[in-house]
Amino acid sequence: MANVQDSSNDNSSDDDDDDEDEEEDPMEESLVNLVGNTIKELAPAAQVLCRKQIILSKLGRMGIFRVVDLQTIMDADIQMVVAALSPTPLLFAFKLKQAVTALLAGAERQSTSSQFSPAGAASTGGAASTAGAASTAGATSPANATSPAGTTPGSGAFQTPPINVAPAATPSPSTSVIATVKIGPQTYIGAHQFTVTVTTSFAELLRLAISGKSEVDRAKLEGLPVKVETFTGPQHLSTHKADASLSALVTDSISLGYRHIVFTHALPAQKPAARPSNSAFERMMGLGLPDRETAADEAELSFDQRLYNWLVDVCEEQGLGVRGDEKKESISTGDIERYLTATLERIVRVSNDDKCKVPTGEPGNPVGTNVRPMAAGVALKSVRLLAMDHSWHRASITPTVTLLSDVAHGFETGNWRHGQLVVSIKDSVLEPSSAFRNAAELATTVLAACAKPIILDKRTDGGPEQNTTFGSVQLADVALWKKTGADLCIHQRPAADNSWINEVEGCMPLLNLGMQHQATERLRMDPKFEDLFANEGSMSAVRAKIDSIEDASERQAAEAAWLASLHGSGGPIELLQQRFGRLVYTDRTLKIQPVATSAEIAAMHALVSGIDASWRPEMTTKPALLKLEKLQRFLEKHTIRDKYIVCVFKCGDPDCEFGCGPLRMPRAAFDELIGNRLKAKCKI
Description:
The protein is α+β, with helices and mostly antiparallel strands. The chain has 28 helices and 18 strands.
């Protein structure tokens, strides 16, 4: 039993007063018992997290040594107590406040009744002695009259607080809270104020919050899992949050200061695939049934559903499966998978760019390729190093590199740099890269890989021969589209200083391996032509010299002589072809493709002339093209042109005046890729 000295004793010395000031206030025994009993009410798992001595020590550091002190602090700021007791579970603070409120309310009632019943007084004090009962009842004994409020003279049991202590705060019959309803991260019902009673549960509050929604919406919400979170402020800070259950009373949270309630429903589960499978069909669609998808309105069907229905129709038309009530048979996913596999192989993705020019020296004066060696060269002592690492030269070679991406590998891994490399090596003087030359060479590359492509995706750099804003490039794309017969041809180019996006840029270092420690020189021409070009010191000068020859046969002979000095047997282009042909990229040997001939380029021109007979190859500027009405009608109906992209496509009209032919891709796919954008008059 604690011995409490009467504060009215003034006979103590000053030294004794100093000792009393330094002595720590004793912890009220009723507070100790209250903490212990509250811990016992918790679940065993929660009890492990509550250490009685640590909790009492933390309360002592807050200046709380009596039950009345704890009530005062909790009524003023429950959050301060919760923070001070951390990491003790929040439930402990809630239970402790309930216990304090119940204990003080019961003691007050007993104190009131003891004024009229001696027996009640004795029972309230909890002591057998008359003195104890008298002190409990508030008798005017000297010791009790002068003792500090809340002390316990003569007994360790809880005593009635002084009459000037406010009773515990209890929830009013009705109070207000702020409730918000969410579905996933999105707010479904914004913050609204609702009035609740002491018997209102969180489940009832949720039903009240969604009462303004339709019966269908309420039914959908009730079928979703929901999480209840309570907050002390409208900011919904995670540091001021407590979880609650639907069956709990709202007033329990209000008593702890949590008036802002958030109900968060889980997002509706997505429809999973019927079963895990490696089937290309199921990976693409996420569907497992071969029956057609139906809806009250066809427009409500998703892109995948419309595409699925189209595949079923195609398989029926091509006899890939049998459907009918008589035979009770349906198209198997294997049939559709075979069709999808064949369709996937008809999607061609190419990345194209020119490598930097390779300097080529004059006969007897080879010039190094300017490729920085990755390792030191090894040569016999008898070998004379005659090549110049830099010098005057007028001839050069341009390798044009195309990457045919492995589409299936790209879809599975997202890596589009895996595929077949194709290289064309051309003379920079008389075979310069141009929009129609590149289109003719790409047509050869694409048709060699796929005889009947459905979609052609082309990515290039932004050079003058591939700038999608130039009329020559747009018409070359039209010619490429017609030559390949694709439903859709897409030409993309990156913005300035972003050529690294073009996948083939990552393949260029491989070609450097083939050009290490190499020097090239052109072959010697007939003396007649050597003398003709003797004073022409640049590529443009050589071209001008050839163009100045009036006789057509002589002009052709000069062109042939110059080309033979580079393409001839044992010449520099053949040397690079042999070295590049020994390189391997992604387990595939590099493919060497011949340069497009003049006849092949003329054939590409003819494809554009077939659209508008008044067009001529030199008509590539915008003012010149605007004068061609029929060509303009074609471009408006069959193309989408933007700064960084050009799309050429079939219109799907069986009566098309340009005879573009029927679509081979699903109509749903065409609408998703092109049709809907045309209807919305938006650019890609």
